[in-house]
Amino acid sequence: MDEEYDVIVLGTGLTECILSGLLSVEGKKVLHMDRNDYYGGDGASLNLTQLYRKFRSDQPPPTALGRDRDYAVDLIPKFIITSGELTKILVHTDVTRYLEFKQIAGSFVYRDGKISKVPSTEMEAVKSPLMGLFEKRRAKKFFEFLQGWKDDDPATHQGIDLDKDSMETVYEKFGLEPGTQDFIGHAMALYLDDDYITKSARPTYDRIILYTSSMARYGKSPYIYPLYGLGELPQSFARLSAIYGGTYMLDKPVHEIVTDQNGIFVGVRSGDETVKAKQVIGDPSYFVASQEAEGGKLRVLEDGKVIRAICILKHPIPGTDDSDSVQIIIPQNQVNRRNGTHYLIHETIRSRKLSPGLQLLGPIFEKFVTVSPLYTSVSTGEVDNIFITRSYDATSHFETVVEDVQDVWKRVMGKDLVLKKREVEAEA
Amino acid sequence: MSKQFQFKLVLLGESAVGKSSLVLRFVKDQFDDYRESTIGAAFLTQTVTLDGQTTVKFEIWDTAGQERYKSLAPMYYRNAHCAVVVYDITQASSLEKARNWIRELQRQADPSIVIALCGNKADLAARRQVTQEEAQKYAEEEGLMWSETSAKTGEGVADIFTAIAKKLPLTAPPSSRTGGRGGPSGARQGVDLNRQAASQNGGEACNC
């Protein structure tokens, strides 16, 4: 630990591991530490023993649940959008060679007390109970308009300006019913609330195109998922970092973020050892816990909470055709709540944010609930060389994680993140 | 008809016992006296021909230095069909470390994993601290394959990989046992992101 590093990374969540991997590839000398003896931080995937140790410390896992190693329960369940930004990073860095993916069987949406599959084929769309016959025609025209849109061809614009007109204007032009708007805004554009309706239509257009192009790649749903749990993602980027010289230390407590008299980052202290580096990147938990040792310096603020529930069921979700993996979206208007709910449901792993959704699950064998604060950094880090990533939000995918990676990268490196294809290693 | 089987092989052992050198010798028949710690290429493949018809392709995972502070990820062990646990015959402590890694494998890896214990740096026999008898006895007790190698001279290197290839179950496709990676054809099941990325532009139809 007597060496000096370019960057110390604290925490092995996905955001930190992607940054660590990309920085090592870029030639930076990286030391990556985690207080836990496992990878993944708050976004780890746990086996049964680890899960019960975390939530039921006085109780071993019931034998009825079977073998420990058959479980990989994501603490923060999300899916990967097939054509999304995370996929681009996975492919460009070539970490896909360490991973296997499965396709999520279907995306469902909650409407009028029951759930229906978001259509993935024309046949499903024709049969779908989500819209009446005339509404289907209107929706078809709406989607044809979006698909046909070309920025430089006014003939495709039909009088709409995506940058100036609101989404409300677009919905009105095609005469879409409120239920259809719910479905489009929440199950396809994946908004958590309805604020987007009064804003420029452009971001919603981009999100719908992302959804439909993701759907087109594999057919059943626009989502993929690592076969052995989301915890494989940070592990694979950590391996990338290690291959390019990154040093890994798990099970390493971090006692202090050491700064000089001007508050500029100097190093990280663990016990009696202090490791020096030019910059530090870390998840918020490392900057909350260390406040006391540093004279109460406030580095992160809480600006919200996410409630997550992991439920173990002994049956498939009712109404999903016995799918082994699904996402169920509950638009906010369907439950009279401010925010929508996403269920990410794959095999034994279930999640929820609001109670109405739990009723959809049928009998619940076991339920673990967490309430997690959402932290944001009070400074950009450009002055003190302390760069703090964001907590994992309530979205059902990784797009905001990649935004955070790009944002932190730009501040750390002083330039935009440009993905380069990793050199192909020699095959003998 | 020729058959090719693909297996994941993981390397384990204390830092500086010569894990990467062993692979470099096996894969490229090279040796570098002043090799730095593993950087850059920790994923190599090499094919062993057993007889005219059967070839075994090893997908070799190096630790990339993550063993140094006990920070190997569970992913490393996942679906590994075979492991080479390396110690340095001139360092008695490295055999102790090898025992720990073997315990870790027995805990984390598939119970059917084929493990070879490998005493490297056999060219430095003059400075030997680990006797052949001691290592062999331990290997027999634990049901491991064992041999000594020198990545520097090449002695025994190809032999140990060939011996592993012979011991792997070639009757059943490995994929049926692990449920995934590397069937007899080497093809992966599930979703291939790289392939799909290439054909991405083709799919733009809206299915709604």
UniProtKB/TrEMBL annotation, chain A:
One of its GO terms (biological process) is small GTPase-mediated signal transduction. It comes from the Eukaryota. Pfam families: GDI (PF00996). One of its GO terms (molecular function) is Rab GDP-dissociation inhibitor activity. This is Rab GDP dissociation inhibitor. One of its GO terms (cellular component) is cytoplasm. Belongs to the Rab GDI family.
Automatic annotation (TrEMBL), chain B:
The keyword Cytoplasm does not apply. Gene3D superfamilies: P-loop containing nucleotide triphosphate hydrolases (3.40.50.300). GO terms for biological process: protein transport; vesicle organization; vesicle-mediated transport. It is found in: Cell membrane. It is a lipid-anchor. One of its GO terms (molecular function) is GTP binding. Pfam families: Ras. It comes from the Eukaryota. Keywords: Cell membrane, GTP-binding, Lipoprotein, Membrane, Nucleotide-binding, Prenylation, Protein transport, Transport. Residues 170-208 are annotated as: Disordered. One of its GO terms (cellular component) is endosome. The keyword Phosphoprotein does not apply. PANTHER family: PTHR47978. This is GTP-binding protein RAB5.
